[in-house]
Prior knowledge:
binds shikimate-3-phosphate, four-stranded mixed beta sheet, alpha+beta, 12 helices
Amino acid sequence: MPNYLVHPVTTVGGSIRVPGDKSISHRSLMLGGIAEGVTEVRGFLESEDCLSTMKAMRALGVRVEQTGPQEVRVHGVGLHGLKPANHPLDMGNAGTAMRLMTGLLSGQSFDSELIGDSSLMRRPMERVAKPLREMGAQIETLDGKPPVRIKGGAQLAGIRYELPVASAQVKSAILLAGLYANGATTVIEPAVTRDHTERMLQSFGCSVSAGHGEVRLTPPTRLEACSLEVPGDFSSAAFFMIAGSIGQGSGLTISGVGVNPTRTGLLDILALMGADLRVVNHRSAGAEPVADIEVRPAQLKGIHVPEHLVPLAIDEFPALFIAAACAEGETLVTGAEELRVKESDRIAVMAAGLTAMGVQCEVLKDGIRIQGRPQSAVFSGGEVDSHGDHRIAMSFAIASLRAAAPIRIADVANVATSFPNFPGVAAAAGLKVELQ
Length: 436
Ligand code: S3P
C-alpha cells in the first residue's frame, strides 16, 4: 500500500495549476455520450474516478477517444443509443459516477448493475434510488448500498421532489432520469448545491431553469454535442489556498481555477478566518466561471463556520480542519453530518489524524470542535492513516508546513482518483511529498 512521507518545510510560493474539475469531467462523458454528434472536451481530468466513468460509457457502447493530454472526444450515440454492458459497471471509488449513472441508466431499455471498490460499496445509495423509484424506475440496492441493480424498460414520469439532504449528486441523478421522463421534473433543494449538471445540460441545448431553490427540467427530444472546457478543480486548488495561508513566503498563485459560486464556500470561510486571498483575472470556460487565486500567508483565527456555507464547501473540510488547527482560538463546524458518508467518515478520520498529531479536537455528531495553536510547529509529525481517502491524504500533506517532524501518511493510492501528480504540483509550490 503506497504511503506519503512528507517532510517539514516552511515556505510555499510560485505559480501553479491544478488538474481539471472532477465533477465537470464526469458529466462531460455522460452528457457527451447521450448527445447527438461529437463532443470535444479540453482540460479533462484524467483521474481514476473519471476513468471509471469513461470505462462505463465505453461499456455502454460510446466511443471515447483520448485525443491528447487532458483532451477527450466523445462520440455521442443519442438519448436512446446506449447499449447494454455485458458485465457489471465498476465505478471504482467514484460516488459521483455511481449516483449519476444510476439516474442515467434508470431511463434505458436494458438492465444494468453498478459496483465499486470497498469504500463505494459501503456508501448510501437509497438517497438516489428512492426518488428514482418515485419516477417509475425499478432499482434494487443491498441494504441501501451497492450493488445497484437497475431494471430496464421502465417508463419514467417527471416528479416534483424535495431533497431531504443537500446533494448535487442526488439532484443530478434525478435530472438525468428526467431526460427520459414523461413531463417536467422539478428538484427542490434545501440549500444550494453545485450546479454543474444544470449548466452543462444548457450547453447541450436542454431547457433547465433554476431559481427560488428549485431546478426544473423539461425533457428534450435530443441533446446536441458541443465543445467543453473544463476549468481547474476548485477542490484541488483548496489544498494550496490553505497551504499558502498557513505557510510562509511572498505568495502563491493558482491559475485557471473554476470559481462557480456553488463551489467557492471555502473562500468565504477563509475570509472570515482572516485569510489573505484574492480572486483575480475573471474569465469563463464555456458555462463555467474561471479565475486565478492569489494567496498570501496570514494568521488565521478560529470561527464557527456558518452552516449555510457547508454545502458550498463540502469537499474542503478535511483541508479546512488543517487550517483550523493552525488558527488562533477555536473553530467549530456544525451541520456537516454529510462528511460522515464521504469516501471515508471524514469527521472521525480527520479527528484521529489530528489527535495523533497532538491537536486537540472534539468530535460532534454533525461536525467537530478544533483548538487552534498559532505556533510554527502545530503538528507533531508521526503517522496518520488516510483510510484510503484522497482528500484526507492531501490535507495531512499540507500540514507539513507547520510540522515539527516528518509525517507518514498511510494508504494514499486514492489520491489518483482526483489529483494525479499531486506530489509534483505540491513540489512546484515548495512542498516535499515523497511517494513510498
Ligand atoms: C459531487 C457532489 C458532492 C461532492 C462530490 C461531488 C458532484 O457530493 O461531495 O465530491 O459532482 O455532484 P454530494 O452530492 O453527496 O454532496
